[in-house]
Amino acid sequence: MKRRNFLATTAGSAIAAIPLFSIGKASKGKSANGKVNVAFIGSGGWIARQPYEQGCSEENLVAFCDVDQSRCAENMKNWRTNQPFFEDFRRMFDKMHKEIDAVVINTPDHTHFAATMAAMERGIHVYTQKPLTHNIWQARTLVKALAKYPVVTQMGNQGHAGDGIRQSVEAYRAGMIGNVKQVFCRNPGPELGGMHFAKPEVMPLPTMPIPEGLNWDLWLGPAAARGYNVDYHPTKWRTFYDFGLGMLGDWGCHTLDTPVWALDLDPPTLIECIERSDSLDGVIPAGSHIRFHFPANKERGPVVMDWFDGPQDWTKVGRIDQFGAEHAAHLGQACWMVGEKGLIGCGTHAGRPRIMPLELEKNWKENPPIASIPRVAGGPFREWLRAIKGEGPEPGGHFPYGAKLTEIVLLGVLAQRFGGSIEWDAKAGKVTNRPELNAFVKEPVRDGWSYGEKL
């Protein structure tokens, strides 16, 4: 179902096939106190505070799980009363799955899929942070799983629940800027050697003593075994392709969201690495330029989208030179959709659109398009929880949409990692011009971490 259609669906019909929640019951049914039993996988750091502060704290918090007890100690001091705590989400589900209605997954990218599948198999509603998965096979498998396990799903992508992205999509659909053939997206990071990204001198990283309170084997999860290093955990894992997906994986789901929704972009047929900084094997580059080629559909022609990350000389790259704009970073915007009559720009998390030329923006403010897309009350967590309770429609970031957006991002990461051009057969789910890269479309996992193989 196209996103524009399911958002207009009434709450009753949108969730008719989805089991409602229970409070401490084996059978599904609406609870007397109207609260959802929520568990957390990944309870440490600021990312875990986000769901707590944005709606989940109003529900019944029934269990917490984290592989690093020291890392999550402060949060547990504030949130936990007598709820059980687990290191291993598999044990939590085995013991408590009948008491858990919904789970929020705040783990590093490489463990998203295993935790999400384990929840879905038990009929537990899932909110998984972006990017949805670490490889394309996993993203597609979660969509297959949804047909078998009809739970309420949401990929954590805050801007998707905001008014700003809806204003941009509505402006484009109203024909305000005409047909779009070109999109520019950018992010100035990563800052290698900074707070969130490492700058290793050698690979593999040297082994360090495992900190007290950390179960390193569980942190590795499905990834190949190796020694602990502080640059892997707690904050810099996105530097390494085995665990994270760099700046494109971190911010791409935010920044590409507006054009993917507005232009109804399906996976590209060609992805090119135009430029990248040198990097050690398995380590993200300090900067790159990736170009996506999207095929035409019934409503528009082909679209080319350029992504830039890292320090850039914007006088030379991301040139727009139309309708008063100069480059991809013009007015601080993270994304510009370039149409025949004007531009629509948005920030890293979508946000309120900027429209150029200024006369067109003035007309947009004075005569805005009809608000045809329903607005979300309370943000992405409340949107998800309301759907679970039967009080609202299916979340906009549900897994079919989240998986498509994630697949686009992952194809860009694949080109960034290995350079050159990638020809993608979306129907077959394969790289056709460089078959050796298909090993990264579905990555191997360690024993004990296989999920979804029979779907």
Supply Rg: 22 Å
Report the sheet with the most strands, covering strand number, pairing sense and barrel closure.
9 strands, mixed
CATH class of the domain at 3-161 and 379-399: Alpha Beta
Quote the average pLDDT.
92
The share of residues in helices is: 25-40%
List the helices and strands in order.
HHEHEHEHEHEHEHEHHHEEEEEEHHHEE
Largest beta sheet: what is the strand line-up? 13-12-11-7-10-9-8-14-15
**Beta strand %:** 15-25%
CATH superfamily of the domain at 3-161 and 379-399: NAD(P)-binding Rossmann-like Domain
- Ends distance: 21 Å
Uncertain segments: 1-17, 23-29
What is the fold-level CATH name, i.e. the topology of the domain at 3-161 and 379-399? Answer: Rossmann fold
Structural class: alpha/beta
Shape: globular
Tally the helices: what do you get? 14
CATH architecture of the domain at 3-161 and 379-399: 3-Layer(aba) Sandwich
Number of strands: 15
What is the compact description of this entry?
The chain has 455 residues and is α/β, with parallel strands linked by helices. The protein is 28% helix and 18% strand. The chain is globular.
Explain the overall architecture.
The chain is α/β, with parallel strands linked by helices and 455 residues long. The chain has a domain at 3-161 and 379-399: NAD(P)-binding Rossmann-like Domain (Rossmann fold, 3-Layer(aba) Sandwich), CATH 3.40.50.720. The protein is built from 14 helices and 15 strands. It has helices at residues 3-6, 11-14, 45-53, 73-79, 89-96, 112-120, 136-148, 163-173, 216-220, 246-255, 257-262, 358-366, 379-389, 399-418, and strands at residues 37-41, 60-65, 85-86, 102-105, 125-129, 153-156, 180-187, 270-276, 288-294, 303-309, 335-339, 343-347, 350-356, 420-425, 430-431. α6 (112-120) packs parallel to α7 (136-148), α7 (136-148) packs antiparallel against α14 and α10 runs antiparallel to α14. Mean pLDDT is 92; it is low at 1-17 and 23-29.
